[in-house]
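Predict structure. Input: EF-hand domain-containing protein, 83 residues.
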Amino acid sequence: MTSPFSKEIVAELKESFEAFDYNSDGTISRRELHALLHTVGHKVNSTGLEDLLKAYDIDQSGTIDFQEFLELADFLIKNKLKK
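Output follows.
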């Protein structure tokens, strides 16, 4: 899977991902994702959070791994720029 981001941006996103991966298991849980979204200014309710998980948790593990996170970040960045 190719990333729409430069190597520098991927490195920054990896830092952010790791900062919110509180238990360092290599994934972002529902709780961690909610905290991350809140921090970057994307206010979501529980339904919105579930919708994002369904859409971007490609392997249906219940968590977001880094590759899935890159897809989610791309969506969030594009969505934020449209507002």
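The CA atoms of residues 54 and 60 lie 7 Å apart.
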